[in-house]
TrEMBL record, chain A:
Cellular-component GO terms for this entry: plasma membrane
GO-annotated molecular function: ABC-type transporter activity
Protein name per its UniProtKB record: Transport permease protein
A Pfam family assignment: ABC2_membrane
Transmembrane segments: 79-97, 103-123, 157-180, 186-204, 278-298
Topology in the lipid bilayer: Multi-pass membrane protein
Automatic annotation (TrEMBL), chain B:
Name of the protein in its database record: ABC transporter ATP-binding protein
Keywords for the protein's UniProt record, in alphabetical order: ATP-binding, Nucleotide-binding, Transport
Cited SMART domains: AAA (SM00382)
Organism lineage: Bacteria, Bacillati, Actinomycetota, Actinomycetes, Kitasatosporales
One Pfam family linked to the record: ABC_tran
Family per similarity comment: Belongs to the ABC transporter superfamily.
Gene3D superfamilies: P-loop containing nucleotide triphosphate hydrolases (3.40.50.300)
Molecular function GO terms recorded: ABC-type transporter activity; ATP binding; ATP hydrolysis activity
Gene Ontology CC annotations of this record: membrane
Amino acid sequence: MSQVLDTPPPTTTAPPDDVDLAALAARHGLSVSGARPTLPEYVRQLWARRHFIAAFSTAKLTAQYSQAKLGQLWQVMNPLLNAAVYFLIFGVLLGTKQGVPDYVPFLVTGVFIWTFTQSSILAGTRAISGNLGLVRALHFPRAALPISFCLQQLQQLLFSMGALVVILLAFGVPVAASWLLAVPTLVLQFTFNAGVSLIMARVGAKTPDIAQLMPFVLRTWMYTSGVMWSIDHLLAKHTDWPSWVGPVLQANPPAVYIDLMRFALIDSFHGSQLPPHVWALATGWALLAGVGGFIYFWKAEETYGRG
Amino acid sequence: MAENLNEQIPTVIADRVDIVYRVNGTGAGRGSATAALNRILRRKQTEKASGVRKVHAVKQVSFVAYKGEAIGLIGTNGSGKSTLLKAVAGLLPVENGAIYTDGQPSLLGVNAALMGDLTGERNVYLGGLAMGMSREQIKERYQEIVDFSGINDKGDFITLPMRTYSSGMGARLRFSIAAAKDHDVLLIDEALATGDRSFQKRSEARIRELRKHAGTVFLVSHNNKSIRDTCDRVLWLERGELRMDGPTEDVLKEYEAFTGDKKPRAKPKPKVAQPA
């Protein structure tokens, strides 16, 4: 600023210090701007913005590949290439496929379902910190952002599932009524993902550094979730492990959803390979993360986007 | 301003508002890894020593805005006008004091919600939804928005991605989308400066129309002429403090004397500059 502007003229109109502005506001029924709404009110606001959530996620999805020559074909190509890389490393080079029937469908299902959780959480971590412009410009329940990003990943997964069906049929896995179980599995997994995303969105909004750390956390999580190997086989091989390792590995939420999806889609993946009370586990994780994450996120609603 | 307090209905009340920004990793050497580590390890130390700079953007500002008023916010760059506007919209938390509002004030601006990779058409829907309009409302207003923006005057541009638009075309479409919604309390941040002269005229007309529907309008602008044309009251902010609050002419006279801008403001494009 120039020198001239450094000496402003004296204030000519003093703020009315004698008037009790808070009382005036109360008398006319004015409410505090930017205050956190109650939880039921928040849910109602969020529901009112459902069309925005859907439109935003679809728009993000479409914008993702709009500059590529092959365009939306990448929606299917991307997960397929991903699966091919894992097949090359784990199936061919490391020989993890020994003893796992239908290894390719087994692996591809695992990779796709895991990718859904992974990218939802990654997107959730950056949902607020990466969209500060939007948060600071428009008024809407902030939970719309992480949920919208999860919805984008769900749509991405549906493309992948289309590719998965082709792979399943190509490897001779028969169409079965159990395929319908994929729907409740996806609903539960989406709820779980959204809940974790909401938690990470709040953490990432306060400490953006978390976004640098998450890829490592998620990679570690992936290798313990039985994405490219069968937890059953591993436990059978390592009988010397403490007895709690098995149940912990099997109760790991991504492992639960991956196994449920394999059980639903692949005929050689039997119910006996599922952990006990698997549906209760899947529902429990979904409710715990979904409800807990939503409340945790809402608790800091008024602080998002702070300078 | 306080004489007919009992007759007018207040829509926005700012009660001794302070707004403070905190910026990480500033100051000499404070962005380095050791300083950052130091900051994490010694949480209790003062914020300044830990490399977090506090910027006191708005200081002890109080005012009452009434229904039917159009209020201009003026001040030199960095005086806290836009910050105050965002706080009124509830988008920035206040450090001290409080801002009370009637209903939800909305900032006129949807830029952040729009995506350059999408067609203008999809951006109209996306922007409308982001502002809280329903699909039906947008469908109803769609043609109006496109016609107003004048995007299709030179061919079928609305079906092209927005990144292909010229900056003027993009600005026009953004303003048209933002102005499509009716608001209770409307906050406008320098929106009138966009587009060519004919679009500016249309924008000003639209602002006046919005003002008729809205309870109260706030306008941040560096264009004293558009403040004169639209506002009947002006708040002058300088270094975050409220310097003056009064009728447009009185405040602008003082402000122009302060900035050394006595003659009518020179326009960016010399050819349209004409003495008032």
